[in-house]
Amino acid sequence: MNPTYIENLTYDEIKVGDKATLVRTLQPSDIQLFAIMSGDVNPAHVDHEYAQSSLFREVIAHGMWGGALISTVLGTQFPGPGTLYVDQSLHFSRPVTLGDTITVTLTCRKKFEHNHHIVFDCQCTNQDGLKVITGSAEVLAPTEKIRRARMTLPEFRLSDRQARYDHLLARTRGLARISMAVVHPCDGESLKGALMARDAGLISPTLVGPEGRLRQLADEIGASLHDCAIIDVPHSHAAAEVAVKMARNFEVEALMKGSLHTDELMEAVIDKEAGLRTHRRISHVFLMDVPTYPRPLLITDAAVNVEPTLEEKVDIVQNAIDLARMIGINEPKVAILAAVEMVNPKMRATLDAAALCKMADRGQITGGLLDGPLAFDNAVSIVAAKTKGIRSAVAGQADILVVPDIESGNMLAKQLEYLADALSAGIVLGARVPIVLTSRADSAESRTASTALAVIMAHAKRK
Questions:
Q1: Which of 27, 309, 351, 396 could in theory staple to 385 by disulfide, Cβ–Cβ 3.0 to 4.6 A?
Q2: How remote is the C-alpha of 396 from its chain's centroid?
Q3: Helical H runs in 307-443?
């Protein structure tokens, strides 16, 4: 097939028994685009949670996605441009699931000289050679040769950032405001994030920082500090100490990092005498809403633990599972990431992954379904997992990604945010109270999304 031109076969050029084929692999975006185009939002196709309890136990393609592939062959190559549909009959034998590779074969069965109609036998088979769709199509074939430049279609990306942001905030619907100390919010984005969370009905904020600077900043960004308590402290170090003390004394239910360095806040949090330690290792989770992934994605730990040991990873995993369950993922699928999917004694990440999975089998980690080691592609792509022959309930549909160290995790989270338009929220787990911990470069929107997580956690702790 010439990639530059599209050219037909005329009625006279096609003989009985001639064939044409087309091969396509079903991607998540195929299902989403077909649903948008057709308006068919049957949960069997677009709702992964519902699909798990359906007949086929996983999301399946719309039946007419395969029918559209038949139309593609007829309209673009066999016979091609100038073809007019007359009749179509299809029988659907089995579902098409994500990652399935479908081969469409059209065979000329009968020709009618008097009206230039052609009847084609149509068959779609999957990668295992099993029939998916069978049937026939009748067309009015072109009688004149047509050769046209192949049109280049525009790129299409599925993304509605505002809808994704609203969806995250909707998780807090019906929950009362919580009290939150905002630590040194002395730049525009950190102050706006706290005030957006206030205006969204999420928090009653206490701003801990230099009062004069905070009021001047509010004037500069055109914001009001109504309904905000202010505790005047001279600098960021004092702000961290005061905010942590407030949380320790149950004066606030959560903390939010402002414009100070992460280390400065976390030093106060982990102080053995005056901090907020519990029996759990403190860890961080990024909750990412990625336009190209069909479910929320939790990444841990990308901000607190530099190079965690196996023992520390147990708490990191358990913290993430507990958070996933709080936001409605009943049995989160946990992918323990490494560079490869095979255990390699020379690669500690693979050994830790294998050990964590066995610890989950023995009940040392509970509430989730673990698998690893898994490379990133196998963790998030069913197509990649099937290509590599990986059979796993986690591969291709992970809810939680456990990274080997802070460097790989931080790079992964930032890449998704800046190159894949992911909406991110960051939260510290394992302390006495949830701590909104975002980068100083993060937007007010990201800070507010993170606050929504803190609200959910605080209410779960109340219960």
A1: 396
A2: 11
A3: 310-326, 348-361, 376-380, 382-387, 406-419
**Per-residue pLDDT reduced to its tens digit, 369-424:** 999 899 999 999 988 998 888 989 999 999 999 999 999 999 999 999 889 888 88
Distance CA 98, CA 229 (A): 51
Terminal C-alpha separation, the chain = 63
**pTM passes above 0.85:** no
- Nearest-CA neighbor of 336 among 298, 304, 367? 298
d(CA 107, CA 230): 77
Q: Helix, strand or coil for residue 157? A: coil
User: What's the pLDDT tens digit per position in 77-101?
Assistant: 999 999 999 999 999 999 999 999 9
Question: How many residues would you count in the chain?
Answer: 463
Question: Domain 279-430: which CATH class?
Answer: alpha beta
Nearest to 454 by CA among 326, 283, 342, 333: 326
Question: For residue 2, is pLDDT > 70?
Answer: no
Residue 61 and residue 45 in contact, taking contact as beta carbons nearer than 8 Å: yes
Calpha distance 226→2 (Å, rounded): 66
Phi-psi label, residue 404: left if phi above 0, alpha if psi -120 to 50, beta otherwise:
alpha
- How far, in Å, CA of 230 to CA of 209, rounded? 8
Taking the domains of the chain in order of start, what are their residue ranges?
A: 5-149, 158-277+444-451, 279-430
Helix or strand run (H / E) with residue 60: none
Other C-beta atoms closer than 10 Å to the C-beta of 293 total 17
CA dihedral 303, 306, 311, 313 (to 10 degrees): 40
For domain 158-277+444-451, give the CATH number: 3.40.50.10950
Contacts of residue 441, Cβ cutoff 8 Å, sequence gap at least 6:
none
Domain 5-149, what fold? Thiol Ester Dehydrase; Chain A (3.10.129)
The neighbour count for residue 340, using CB atoms within 10 Å, is: 13
Tell me, rounded to whole angstroms, the distance of Cα 113 from its chain centroid.
Answer: 54
Same fold, 5-149 and 158-277+444-451: no
